[in-house]
């Protein structure tokens, strides 16, 4: 269990984490969602005692990280997939960590197996791909068999096989009763793994809710209708109490209605239609709308998202 209470971090005049209060419970994957720069990494660093809160506190199993006796046995973390000494072998890196936390050597063999690294265990970690580095980071996080696992953007840069592996691993760890806290700036990624969500924007708590509730509350679905008789269609929909909008290409959008009901309406009025299709806003769109007040976004040609943070100097 992780417990943040009024957790705050300021750098000079800038408040990066702003009075965050939430709990992360065991037995489920909790997603930590927020646009780039929202304060996720800073929050996770405070959980791990790597950064000191300006105000408030964050407790790990009831204590601040600094007061945990053998921290690796309580909380394991992957913050940066390349946070190891490149000259050491994977096994050497894990043995070093194990010794400093009184963890038996047999556990090193176990985590090498668990993360599929046995065959490369004696290679220098500096030669590892991003995916293998990620696996080594996870092996280190699991070394102390901790009840709490923190993962900061674990799928970044991974190939599809690696992404699938991490998703399943997180679900398995939660099913074993562990607390799994994973950050991402992508709603679509967390929708596949997380059961619960903590959403932040500009350091503030925006939502603490189940993934299903978040999606239901924030995604807009409508039935798109293309017809050569838009006025008759619009009138039939309005009479039936359905809200109608006009799309960019002139098609009608029946908001919150089922395609089956629209089909019956069309048939009853004998209206000619060329298209009736259900449209749902993507999770990413829902998330962008939700965090719109916290960040300014602009779309890129390749569909990726870029953002412009409203910083103090407006840069
Ligand atoms: N040491 C620091 N000094 C000053 N500002 C910092 C420092 N560390 C982080 N920040 C700022 O704090 C804000 C939040 O950063 P943080 O890395 O916590 O966000 P994030 O949600 O993890 O973003 P990302 O998804 O990009 O990793 C950013 O504006 C960042 O520039």
From TrEMBL:
Gene3D superfamilies: P-loop containing nucleotide triphosphate hydrolases. Residues 2-227 form the ABC transporter domain. The keyword Transport applies. PROSITE patterns: ABC_TRANSPORTER_2. One of its GO terms (molecular function) is ATP binding. InterPro entries: AAA+_ATPase, ABC_transporter-like_ATP-bd, P-loop_NTPase. Keywords: ATP-binding, Nucleotide-binding, Transport. It comes from the Bacteria. Belongs to the ABC transporter superfamily. This is ATP-binding cassette domain-containing protein.
């Amino acid at each position: 269990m992780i417990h943040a209470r009024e957790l705050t971090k300021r750098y000079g005049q800038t408040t990066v984490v702003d009075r965050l209060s939430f709990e992360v419970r065991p037995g489920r994957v909790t997603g930590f969602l927020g646009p780039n720069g929202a304060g996720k990494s800073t929050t996770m660093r405070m959980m791990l005692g790597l950064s000191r809160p300006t105000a408030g506190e964050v407790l790990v199993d009831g204590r601040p990280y600094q007061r945990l006796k053998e921290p690796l046995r309580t909380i394991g973390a992957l913050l940066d997939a390349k946070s190891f000494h490149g000259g050491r072998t994977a096994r050497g890196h894990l043995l070093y960590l194990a010794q400093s936390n009184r963890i038996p050597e047999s556990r090193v063999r176990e985590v090498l197996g668990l993360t599929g690294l046995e065959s490369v265990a004696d290679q220098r970690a500096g030669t590892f791909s991003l995916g293998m580095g990620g696996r080594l980071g996870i092996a280190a996080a699991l070394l102390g068999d901790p009840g709490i696992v923190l993962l900061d953007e674990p799928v970044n840069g991974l190939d599809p096989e690696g992404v699938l592996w991490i998703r399943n691993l997180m679900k398995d760890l939660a099913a074993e009763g562990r607390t799994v806290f994973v950050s991402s700036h992508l709603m679509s990624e967390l929708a596949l793994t997380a059961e619960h969500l903590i959403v932040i924007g500009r350091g503030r708590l925006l939502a603490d809710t189940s993934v299903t509730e978040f999606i239901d509350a924030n995604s807009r679905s409508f039935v798109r209708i293309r017809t050569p008789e838009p006025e008759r269609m619009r009138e039939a929909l309005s009479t039936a109490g359905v809200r109608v909008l006009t799309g960019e290409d002139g098609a009608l959008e029946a908001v919150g209605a089922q395609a089956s009901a629209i089909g019956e309406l069309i048939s009853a009025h004998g209206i000619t239609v060329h298209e009736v299709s259900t449209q749902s806003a993507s999770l990413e769109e829902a998330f962008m709308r939700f965090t719109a007040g916290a960040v300014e976004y602009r779309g890129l040609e390749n569909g990726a998202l870029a953002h412009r943070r409203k910083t103090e100097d407006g840069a």
